[in-house]
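#structure-requests
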Amino acid sequence: MFSGTPPIPTNADPEFRRVRHVAVTGLTDDELIQVTSVWPALLTALQAAPEKLGALLRNIFNLHLMADLLRSGILESAVAGVRTQPELLSLYWQHRVHRGDGKHDVRELTLTTIASHMIAARSLQVIRSRVRANVDSDSLVDLEQNDILRAEDQGGVPNEDILLFSHHVLFDYAVARLIFGRGRDAPVLVQRLREQRELVFMLGPSLTLVLVEQWSVGGSRDAFWNLALALAREPGLIGLAQLAAPMVAAELSRDITDLSPVLAALKGTDALRGSAETFIQHLVGALFVRHNAGAPLVGPNAGPWMAFAERLADSASDRMMAMVRSLLAAATESL
């Protein structure tokens, strides 16, 4: 339906060279200055932001969250520790949903009910009358006043009969936190995805948020790999669910130690080794996607991928040796 060449070459994703599209990228330096210069506090926070936070704020929604937090009186030092979108969303959640009045449980129960209705209806909106009897009315109004929920906009006029999250990413995070339990019980999460396979198309972003958060929880990678290998060993999942963790690992791995658990799994039981090999196959595919978009496989900023290939070669598995050859071939082409 959309075959052709991108109409604006400077706004095109190289992965979709034969698709007629426009790629909306992150904000440029000039655009960031233009947006933040009208508010000195935001400009100062941006200029002082560490590299990872600065990269995060090139997404205009993340920048909006940052501005909202600063406007609410959150100290710049509290925001400066943020490194990932889940961390930024968690901070926003603490000040918009949890707060300090002891009523966060009822607000989260209200959001759980609303998100569950949306999932059941396969829709990002819900009819207010269908949830009103099952939620606390005060918390519902409170969540609207604090910009977590909003009424549907019909030509500039709010339709109070229809409820939405104020942004779809807030729905994604609510599901990750309240429905998926932030991935703390991997078997339960995997079972849910297996039993309702089509939900992955709606809840895939929530799964990615869970995985990104687990990557750094507690300063280790254990929670991430526990869920990642559980997803890889479940044959009942559609590919989209099995690709989420490899995509996160491809983006966030910086050192070979980040990948130690999956390498160790190659030497485990037959079942564990099979899960690890499936994960690695998807991981190599994710690396090719990133490589086609310009991410290097060799060099000082490439990450641990050549060391990873070397470790894979030690596994003496034909399947893994095929992965090694693929990685080396792609790396050679980029030299």
